[in-house]
Fold these 4 entries.
Entry 1:
Amino acid sequence: MGALFHGPLEDGHFCTASVVDSPGRSLIVTAAHCLDDSTDDVTFVPGYRDGKAPYGVWRLTASFVDKRWSDNSDEDLDVAFAIVAPQGGKRIGDVVSGNKLGLNPGNGRKVRLTGYPDSQDEPLSCFNTATRVGTTQLRIECTEYSRGTSGSPWVTGVDRTTHIGTVIGVIGGHQQGGDTDEVSYSSYFGKDIGALYRQAVAHGG
């Protein structure tokens, strides 16, 4: 899990993303609205804290969003996968372990929600239950999840040793993640998100 930046780290982060397990070991997941302006000059900094990049600064080379998002900002498809360029002969998945992608998570899953409010330089974590809203959204109550936390992963089944689990959502979706800092949303990870993941994998992610 890490922060997304435009330009130098001192200019501040604007969204959150996380590595997702994939055959190419080069894929991250975030909210589609975080990458509306393409991946130009966007970097991913896993483990970012207090201005430091302990695992390096990684350049994004391509992003994948559903056409219904790019055409109409469909809040039920506010999810993006992005390919991260290798550096020093290593891929991002060689350096930072990725969460498994979880589809059709249902209702009432216990999740860990971690993200970077743009007002602070360290991640904020919350544990709570994600509830389904209709058929297309998930909802969770966690306080202080303000601007910058869009794209934060909703992770279930976290291993106590590896701290890796299954990502079943990202802050986004309804109201681009919610219009208060106490309630967050995610587009539901169903078949359309699965198809988007496979598209990214087919391009080397």
Entry 2:
Amino acid sequence: MKKKTILRLLILLLAIALPISAASCTKPTESSKETTPSKTTAATTEKPVVILPDVPADRYDAVKTPRTGSNANTPLVVSTGTLDGKFSSFFATSAYDVDVVGMTQIGLLYYNKFGAPEAGINAPCLAYEFEEDIAADNSTSTYTFILKNGITFSDGKPVTAKDVLFSIYVLGDPMYDGSSTYYTMKIQGMDEYRLQTSSDVLDTVEAILAAGIATNEDGSMKINPATGATQAQQEAFWGYLGEAGEIFANEIVQYCQGYVDKYAEAFLPGFTPDQVKESSTLQTAFSMALWGFGKGGENAAFTDNSGTTYDLTKDTVDGKVFWQNILGKYGYDLSDNGVNYEKAGDLNVQDYVKQLYVQKEGTVEGGVKDISGITTGKLTCDDGVEREYIRIVMDGIDPTAIFKLGVSVVPMHHYTAGYTGKLNDNGVELSSKAFMDHLKTKNDQPLGAGPYVFKEYKDKVVTYEANESFMLGSPKIKTFRYQEITLGAELDSV
């Protein structure tokens, strides 16, 4: 939805209808190493290399040719729905917020009106060219994105490969809690980085998961024999299932909080939505009832699926109780038709077991500093111009990958400004809640290389000014606004 909205607005506001040009890096070669000039060569004979920006030659420049009439003096106002105020490529929680931040951003790729990925000088994205290479045996997929030269953020700072890496590493961080599922792609080294472990440990874990578990006749857990893992390793691994199950259940509880205002009194008679929000026991009981694992009754009573009745004014109902009820229904069937049928997020309960096991028993001394499948460098293209590139190697084939890899490219300098913690070479502090909380302080300060510059959000109006350095040229209309209106009142505003 974000990409389509941006497309419509770009057509409307920029009045640019240029064809996507073919890039000239179809067969890039690695940059040669610099050589020391000969002492007999006069320095004055060497001409400095001028790297021109990869932008359309005929792009509109409002500084040289000022706007006139309504384009210069009359803001264009477009209505939007209720905004959450989270104007961040990382943490936007609604389609309307995504639209707001999208006006200030560019992606690594551009997706046209048919949804096809594009790159090139005339495309509103950072990639000059991209290439997909599938191994002959389908074992790996390699994506190479060659980046444009001379592109700047709206504050004048250059957009570089470091900003792309920063954007990716935020989305790949274990503490990231936004809506992106970038980290779920099978990028080589992603799991090792997120879990700070080795490929050997992960191979053992995969062997344990492949063997799986089952339910004995007496209801206890049965560990199936695994090839590539010892019995002790299996027992240690599945020993974290209870803790993982509580996390799994609490994710359902977190999800259900969005329905408290509407359904609290129906599922927990005698309790108001505000009371439910203030009590973890009431939140869990409400979620269990909403999810079909219990029922609220009179006099603050709650009966779960096992038949146990709780007094919600004094007894505790928590994630452990919820998890035991889930096990009571499915046993140790962890399939998508079993326990994982109940999941409220992207991860299965086995994923949480894996995280706990590796974090506590499989971390690598000294840590894993980088995602091995993501590299960067410089290439000299066929036109003789040197450009940066980002290369991403994935295991197997994922037809949807190219639509996930075109991330919004955000300015590392803007998002890390003011942070006092220790950042790694990719601009993040791994697994740090403090770092993620710092990024969220920028939710009301979107900044990027898109067509407009965010100015303010006040009285339900978002105001932008044109980004005069936008890669495709100055927007035709100087001032743009989003006017927030109540859904259902659209006709009243006509």
Entry 3:
Amino acid sequence: MKPNKLFYLTFFAISVALMVGSATAAEVSQGKCIDYDRGTHQITLEEYDLQFSDEHPYGMSTGVQTVFDVTDAMIGIAPEPGDILRLAWVPKAEAKSALRVMNVSKQDLRKK
């Protein structure tokens, strides 16, 4: 094998290993927006379970309210209290830091 080809294969293998090793998997939460404070960049979410039905298309409330930091998050349609949101988040220090915020209820309305 030529030294040049060996170099490129080694470089490719190391690059792939670094990309796979540095990838982080985000957690996902879905529920009703209780509050969106633009000043502190926090969303309070009443979490829903995964028991979908015709009566509860987004799941049923678990009664758990969680606060997410959305300072660095990509936010689609601006959330309002009462909207159903889906958040992809990662734990950071003492908080749950959102990466993306999707307004599921308003996206559904726009499709109809």
Entry 4:
Amino acid sequence: MNVVLESPNHPAVGLKLAAMLGRGLLKEHYARVLKYGKLLPSSSSEVWVVHSTCQDDVTKDPYWPSDEELYKDLWVAHVWHNHKFLEVAIVGCWWENNQRYITGPYAI
């Protein structure tokens, strides 16, 4: 886990920051961050993998975790940027109300 955000009246949020990963390494990060998430101070904590890349297909065909991983409060954001960081887009995925939610891509 790279960053843990804590607030007195809110569950902890763990962030794993990743860059330019292929599907195999993303899969490893998803599993690893869930393991680290168990060490956070609150049982209702969220854990995020935030993946930054200039790979063109990340917003069109992102690699998402399984429903089982999402159900365990894994949240994922893929952030695409061009080589000069002049264009940026984001897609996200999480589990809520017994289903998978996917949002984006949104230009930012």
